[in-house]
Amino acid sequence: MTLAFDPSDLKLPVGHFIGGRYVEGPGEIAISAPSSGAVLGEIPRADAELVDRAVSNARAALERSGWGGIAPRERLRALSRWADLMEAEATTLARLEAICSSRPVAQVAAADIIVTADQIRFFAEFADKECDDLVPTSDGQLGMISSQPYGVIGAITPWNFPISMAGWKLGPALAAGNAVVLKPSEMTPYSTLYLAELSVRAGIPEGLINIVLGDGPVTGTALVQHPGIDKVSFTGSTRAGGQIMENIARTGIKPMTLELGGKSPMVVFADADLDLAAECLDRGITPNAGQFCVAGSRIIVAREIADELAERLTASFARHQPAATWEEEPGFSPIISEGQLARIDGIVGASVRNGGEVLCGGERFDREGSFYRPTLIRDVDVANPAVVEEIFGPVATFQTFDSEEEAMALASHPAYGLCAGLFTRDLHRALRLTRRIEAGTVWINRYGRSADHILPTGGWKASGLGKDLGREAYHANRRTKSVLIDF
Ligand code: NAD
Question: How far is the CA of 233 from the centre of ligand 1 (A)?
Answer without folding.
Answer: 11
